[in-house]
Amino acid sequence: MESRPTEGTSIDIAGDCDVHPRVIGIALKILSIFQVGTVLNAKDAKSAVNAGAKFLMSPAMVKDILDDAQGSEALYIPGVMTPTEILSAHGAGAKIVKVYPVSILGGVRYISALRKPFSHISMIASQGITIDLIGDYIAQGASSVVLSDAIFEKEAMDHRRFNLIHQLSQLAVLRVNEAVKRLEFELPVAYDFSVGPTN
């Protein structure tokens, strides 16, 4: 089954969850989904879930977190880099994987190449993605993108320019919605080219 982009958008709160409460408030107000990464152990994962996280991400697959997430309301998305890692994570129970670091591996072209053998596995593109590339990633098969650095710019964070973060968040949501609508419009109609018996 071909995976499709999910409704809504999320922002990845990277690091050790020590993020200014107002920043989290802005993200929740706009996006309604709170996601935490980078989570590297089961203890931090549980703390994030208790804080209200619906998604957890790691740069690699952490088996303890994946095991704990089974049956949980929070979705754990492990990081993968190679085809082998994608298949292994999926086989271990991951419903979605995060391709990281995608820009170093080839960016949009790498996602496009992975989609061919792994069209049944939902993949999130992560690392080095700018807002203007959202459409390209989704068009080439990414179910979603991580935009931490693109939205939580270092200068804006250092100077607590929350209005800028708010504007970038809104722009990201707009670009995602445009990309999803464009993809839905461009999806080909399925035709049956099978040849039946002839008389």
Q: Which features would summarize this protein structure in a list?
A:
199 residues; alpha/beta; TIM Barrel; four-stranded parallel beta sheet; 44% helix; disordered N terminus; Aldolase_TIM; lyase
The number of helical segments is 10
Strand content: 5-15%
Major β-sheet profile: 4 strands, parallel
Structural class: alpha/beta
Q: Which descriptor suits the 3D outline?
A: globular
The first-level CATH class name: Alpha Beta
CATH architecture: Alpha-Beta Barrel
CATH superfamily: Aldolase class I
- Report the strand count: 8
Q: Which ranges are low-confidence, i.e. pLDDT below 50, for 5 or more consecutive residues?
A: 1-24, 189-199
Strand order of the largest sheet: 1-2-3-4
Give the C-alpha Rg: 18 Å
Number of domains: 1
Mean pLDDT: 80
Report, as a whole number of angstroms, the end-to-end distance. Answer: 35 Å
The level of helicity is: 40-55%
CATH topology annotation: TIM Barrel
- What is the H/E order? EHEHEHEEHEHHEHEHHH
